[in-house]
Amino acid sequence: MSTSLELTLRPDASPTRHLPGDLAMWFFILAELTVFALLLLTFAVAQALQPQLFHDGRQLLDSSTGLALTLSLLTSGLFAALAQEQVRQAQARRGAWLLLAALLSASVYVWLKLGEYSHLANSGLGMEHNTFFTLYWILTGFHFVHVLLGLVILSWLAERCRQGAYGPGNCSALESGVLYWHMVDLVWVLLFPLVYVLN
Amino acid sequence: MSASTTLIACWLGLAVLSFASVQLGSAGATLLMVCAVLLAALGKAWLIADGFMELRHAPPMWRWLILSWPVVMAAGVLLALSVSL
């Protein structure tokens, strides 16, 4: 598969339109977004059918924890994007440090989410409690698995960056990994209001 | 504006919209509030797509494909929730 897709526009201004990363990653992202779309819409339809149950279930979640989860993921996304920018400017070591910062910020998300899962499980609010918590565990659990995979990818990218494997003309793999991480962010910004906020 | 400054500006916008979502959510369960929260989510999704994923420089087909995903999601959620409001 080609490393990047470039289309020539006008010769005078905006000469090229560039799709970062590998084209295969973009098809993967489309597939992932489709799966998450089905889950998110299922959650919304179930809420429409049982509004009181979902209202009561949501009261047992802490929206400030949801906000902290959001900020940790978004901050991690920022660091990953800044790392990519540094690598393009031939600053691979600085890029590696920024990827490490992205990893640490994502670890805050994991720590907070595990705390929330533990609290809910200890309160008897497991997957079988009611429809709200069944869908809560499926939706957020599926997203959480993606976050864990993202941590592995960020760690790999940071190590490769440290080794100097990426540079201004050779960063398609880095772009693809970072794109995956932004996809995880993209899903979360829709998941967060649906699960934690919208009564 | 440098690329790094643009990214930081995107992050600031994302943080402000996240705080706004939670504040709006605690304001009550009306259709207007749901619309406002979903609009904030839509704005965040577009900031990620155009800013972090760099789709503002991408071929239009890919850009619109990704930008339309949060629109479809927000519309679907609004349609579903408006039934119960």
From TrEMBL, chain B:
One of its GO terms (cellular component) is plasma membrane. The keyword Cell membrane applies. Pfam families: COX4_pro (PF03626). It comes from the Bacteria. The chain crosses the membrane at residues 30-49, 61-83. It is a multi-pass membrane protein. It is found in: Cell membrane. The keyword Transit peptide does not apply. Keywords: Cell membrane, Membrane, Transmembrane, Transmembrane helix. This is Cytochrome C oxidase subunit IV. It comes from Pseudomonas peli.
